Known about the structure:
The chain is mainly α. The chain contains 37 helices and 7 strands. A 4-stranded antiparallel beta sheet has the order 4-3-6-7. Helix 14 packs antiparallel against helix 15 and helix 34 packs antiparallel against helix 35. The two termini are 49 Å apart.
Amino acid sequence: MNPRVVASLVICLLAGGATVASAQPSGGARPPGGAGAVASPDREPSGSMQSRLAVAIAERLIFSESSEDRVRGVERLTSSGQREGVDRLLRVLAEGGPVFRDVRARLTAVRGLAPFASREAVRQQLAKELAVETGGVPLLALVRGTAAMALAASDDARAVDVLVGALRQGGPASEAAGRALLAYPPRSLASFGNGSEGLPAPLCELLGRLGDVRAMTLLKGTLVRGLLRASAASGSDRPDATDYEEESKRARVAAAMALARLGDEEQVPVAESWASSADPYLKLRGVEVLLASGAARGRRSLLPLLSAPDTRDAALGLAAQSPGAELLPGLEESVKAGGDGARRGVVLLGRLGGVEAVRVLEKLLRDPERAGDAAFALARAPGAEARRALEAAAAEPKLARLAARASTVRALALRDAPSGLGDRLHALLASRDAADRAAGAFGLAVLGKADLRDLMGSSDLVVVRAAARASLLAGDGAVAACRARLATESDALTRIALAIAIAASPDASVPVSTGRLAEWAESDEALAPLAVVALGPRERLLEKRRLGRALDSADPVLRAHAAFGLALSPLPDAAARLANAWRFEETARVRRAIVVALGRRREPQRLATLELAARLDPDEQVRETARLALRGELPLPLGRFGAGCAGSEARVGGCYVAWITLTPSSPAGAAEVRERAGRLLDATGLALPVVADPDGMLVVPGVSAGAASFRLASSPLWYDAQGHEGTEAEPAR
């Protein structure tokens, strides 16, 4: 058995904090019915022969043995807006017949009933769907989430009562209700009660996130009194004293955190008492409230928690939200303790910067286990001390390569390149050591100190693989050179490295035969997802099955890339196929990709799905993406890498960089990390094929801000980036 390889992925996000504009569809987007027609909940039954005939046809369909027929039947019953059709659908659902047992038909029913949610019978049905147990069926979770969105979007006080009731009960229905109320904040807080019995933790958390100052009175009552015993017992199957005390404690903590978010100060003395408590939970939550309140004692109270084994991991998460020089001793202790917390501690030391933090990081550069993390931390650390530390490390032969990589990242991210970097990169490129040559080629290419087109002509495959990653930000000529070599390259590993150039341009074109692209797309190689995208512009009537198979794949990454491919398809039915795929897609990331692809299309068939997604999709990013797509403000992610770090050195700076270290689980597995292929799943949803350098290091420049993950080829595990969002990654002040 091969030794196990562990990957660690960190993202250097040092740009000025990317923001995504939230937009509402202009003109008042109408909630479409199941088949795209807009239903009117106020239309009375006409009693016409045509109406009765439509219902009769729909009834035959919903009792069909075909799921697709049942879905069509549900759509027919709701899309006309006739009361008779809605009533018939409610009866069918209540009877527990084929529609109720068919998850796709139920989801279609929930979407179709949404415009009628103010009606009592419809609201009751949606409440039942909100409470549904998934039983391991992912699509049922989408049914539940959509039902919650339909209730919240109705702007009906009784629907808010249902959602608040679900929040009080806890569990998955509570989570769905909370997301829905955040998407559609209630006009009145009457459903939350008068606060006399206290509010359970989920309600307090929601009120804090809503940012409604009217909630302060309710929250202050809970902060002072906690929950009354009757209130705590009402939503619990175990109303004993222990449960009551625990629920009341969590409610008070949630109320304090909500008040901190709302800008109040009444919670500060209470949080200070918690921070001095012997209860580890109260200690942590008290410090968290103090930090959120901006209290001076917050960081000082956090320091001992960083040194205690039982609170260290949680304390590191709080330290990431509020870094400061006071935390230096605690972070140093966390590094000494080892484990995953040590890596986080090293990264946070880099965020602090300053003489003392850099001193610790310089020592860690000489620790083989922490050297990569320390180099990354120095690359992003503010201040001249970190730059000088990298210059000193570059003078040591054993550290020269690592220092050059970190210096390259520093140049990209901070416009603060250590002196003599270009000369050192050229020296590495001339080295006999393959890992040195890889580091040199990458640095020269990405900083524009060497022409990527010349590097693509090299006979040294290590150089070609490393330099190919610079194609994300090196300009059209360099991208063309990478794609040209991809077309003729016989080495499989080098092909994977070169395929990243497919993502570097908005057209996804490569000078490779369609048959060969199809082979790559159906392989298990890391370039398969981008090959699927490249097939999109070449789609022909008799070749639709290629993207169709990817769109039906069990791998959500392939499904998402099939959507991107359909965005580029010349066939007029591409929008309809995308809309059909969105209807029952259980993975939010894939639904986002489908919505992005629909935004690229211009067929009118896209509008109903985009409007429905913008209104009812349980995923916040899907809804926001759909709104932007409706406004025509959402291009494909292809060719959108390298913002702030592309082109000449004069434009270098503010770059987002992924820093990946492959580490063998034992000394015997050292060979397993050399030149391993993998996929970096960018925040845009594109899977970038990459090949590690011979020493197991991998730097990918120009990636997008947001969540990212990495997977080694032939591995089922995805390694998530440590949570470095754009705001967190700004230099500490």
